Amino acid sequence: MTAKSPSITLNNGVQMPALGLGVFQSPPAETARAVETALATGYRLIDTAAAYANEREVGEGLRRSGLPRDQVFIETKVWISDYGYDATLHAFDKSARKLGVEQIDLLLLHQPLPSAFDLTLEAYRALEKLLADGRVRAIGVSNFMPEHLERLLSTASVVPTVNQIEVHPYFQQTALQRVHAEHGIATQAWSPIGGITAYRGLEKTSFADPTLLEIARQHGKSAPQVMLRWHLQQGRSAIPKSTKPARIAENFAVFDFELTREQLAAIDALDTGVRGGPEPGSITLESYGRPIPEA
Length: 295
Description:
TIM Barrel, alpha/beta, single chain, two-stranded antiparallel ribbon
């Protein structure tokens, strides 16, 4: 029998699988097969984004899987170039058409846009409209820091269900996670096994961390499996990325062991406070804007 991910109940009652497949930087040519493989393995959450340029292939993998649409939780993100009320409504249409779906389970704003936060607020207002119209089942944000959440919550009529942020043992954002908990916002971890520490060429990578390797040895598991288990036991959603069938399967084989309180604390102690991804406050249309093609 195929293993099944536990679910997280979002603040609007929607159930979201806790563990999913991410497709950031998955080449389009490999994405459909990776999604099909993941769904055959037991994954039921796929995370993509308009800016990844592989939504079409995610939709293809979903169709190839043969699974009924309501059995797979699809989330995608609106890129900053499409912020603004009307532009964001149109961004939904582009993503839905590329994915080949009528309804998206979770739609996020990909980044705050501090230099044009009025556009960010208008984009979120469009998400609220899509939610009210039943075009999406849940809405949220990604890479929002406490000050961005505060500004958003001061005008929003719907509290985001999710904030998808960089979280791994070397960068845990515990203060931000506390803000999430106060507002009932689920934390979803991107780069959950610290892949960004490897491809940014940092000297120290989570995959070779002695603490993680020792905990892995004690459970007969790998360091990535230990990191994913850490996320799940602390109540986070995690979306590890891979296109390799063996790694996709390995990342899903994390439901048959439990980390002890001491092991969780040892992983918590690895936090360096060093961000691997871009600083959310530095995102501007001038630096990061790029047109998202029509479907």
